[in-house]
Batch of 3 targets.
Target 1
Amino acid sequence: DAGVIQSPRHEVTEMGQEVTLRCKPISGHNSLFWYRQTMMRGLELLIYFNNNVPIDDSGMPEDRFSAKMPNASFSTLKIQPSEPRDSAVYFCASSTGPGRGDQETQYFGPGTRLLVL
Amino acid sequence: KQEVTQIPAALSVPEGENLVLNCSFTDSAIYNLQWFRQDPGKGLTSLLLIQSSQREQTSGRLNASLDKSSGRSTLYIAASQPGDSATYLCAVKSQRGGSEKLVFGKGTKLTVNP
């Protein structure tokens, strides 16, 4: 398996522009997670999906952020409009899903490094 | 709200030394605790997962322990090598607030000098 795939790997954009990050989870995994990593705040969960349904979006910072999972093999995280404070590394992760709460782990993609000028 | 703290934030050791990384968490109601490794510019790789009913897990030169009642975990690395240089993150899966969520510490950046 190729693991979790994210694109683009790097994104530089100007303030006010729309940014779309993409993720392909591991085949057969039922849960998908979007994280943001910054030096100040560390790694924070933004939102997660189970069977393509958003379960917890309490970490989404504000209405400028939105995430979708139209099918089991694809998800997007969109920022519109982008701001300099959104600069961070965004990770996507997937797992086999609930039901094995004490045993299952998450598999992370390589991340998208976003810089908003 | 679960909070995870890792000490120290950075550690530099000579090759061959044994070392311990520390992790503490505020809420003992957890499903498991995991240690991840992150290399620069890369994603996270799971190293060890300790279920809430377990006390420790071992993989090669790595040994992780869990004391749930005191809210502490340690990652022991034996005979460190330059290839061990990376950031190590601790994460707990809390029983409260949703069974899927991982809460991460900010990590310990380890440098092993040849």
Note: Chain B touches chain A through 27 residues (CB under 8 Å).
Target 2
Amino acid sequence: GENVEQHPSTLSVQEGDSAVIKCTYSDSASNYFPWYKQELGKGPQLIIDIRSNVGEKKDQRIAVTLNKTAKHFSLHITETQPEDSAVYFCAASPNPPTNFGNEKLTFGTGTRLTIIP
Amino acid sequence: SQTIHQWPATLVQPVGSPLSLECTVEGTSNPNLYWYRQAAGRGLQLLFYSVGIGQISSEVPQNLSASRPQDRQFILSSKKLLLSDSGFYLCASTGRLSFTDTQYFGPGTRLTVL
């Protein structure tokens, strides 16, 4: 089955600086890669996702890059703010969400990001 | 968009007692539904998923069971709780209204078994 590794497990960044979280996956059939942000005591919230036909996707201060050859993808947060402090999870799935399929995500172990004011 | 409700929000139960956690989904029909468990400071472990009423797949052997009595209702149960069942339980849903639907999570239930 799929195995997703995520690094680092903890990351402290000065406010205003950039943060980068990296994930690698093992199953070459994976083609959907979401990122979730989880604040303390809450459920994970999807912040951005990317599919295998795209190498990079950006949404304001958040960007995700994908290298299918190397089987790794990364989350980039620029101009970090205190509210970016949370645990971030990457995930991979061989099935993009469809009307017919059952997509199961394999999650990384999470990165605790702390923004230092 | 989807809204996922879970209750209770927190629960403290003695070892050996039964458990019932409920999840309901609004804003979609015929979703795939999932139960995850998250131990303190750890990642997400998929416990069960369901592609339709009465259809349950278990990912890991354990003390828990799941049922889906209605299209948008997913229940996690146990007859006798163990200490190791403590954790943060998350329900998730994948809608089927469009090809761009993705997996959304509920607010979670924090279970403490004493």
Note: Chain A is about 0% helix and 50% strand.
Target 3
Amino acid sequence: AQKITQTQPGMFVQEKEAVTLDCTYDTSDPSYGLFWYKQPSSGEMIFLIYQGSYDQQNATEGRYSLNFQKARKSANLVISASQLGDSAMYFCAMREGDNFNKFYFGSGTKLNVKP
Amino acid sequence: SAVISQKPSRDICQRGTSLTIQCQVDSQVTMMFWYRQQPGQSLTLIATANQGSEATYESGFVIDKFPISRPNLTFSTLTVSNMSPEDSSIYLCSGLTGLNTGELFFGEGSRLTVL
């Protein structure tokens, strides 16, 4: 089974609107971390936000927030007030337990922000 | 956040040649990894770069094809040997600091095109 599933290959959003990028995960380890990365066309991977499995509150970082629904095993990324510079690929990732060499990445969602 | 720089940022190579990618990290980084991202795909871990010893390769990757060195804590190289067009990818150096949330930091990526 896929560890990380991103079901939206591509998304469009109007500038200044909010957008939600979906991510579901699969693990039986009670301790895990969930991450979102942004990859612009330049290729660099930029860390956006982190959610730990034991965190009680949803993570937020500026315009990014993570809608963490543990029972559903989902970790959706919400970008508020979209900007043109948000156009990029977005990858959801998971690290299980303390396996630091085991990051599982989803297939990515390409976000296009329209002016 | 950790600073990771790699070079070259991009190159066009001829079939049958080899290319070495260099990665320099700051002193916060404890573990270093090399990832491959084939066109339109997600990230795949090639290997963990171990200081002063042989790298730990993931299934499907072998030392003869992807020799890796890490002579000290802050420097690593990845060589892509005897290249074919199937090796055209973005190669990403990444590192963990062991601090905070344990997120992976990435270099800018090296985009290789093999003709």
Note: The first strand of chain A starts at residue 4 and ends at 5.
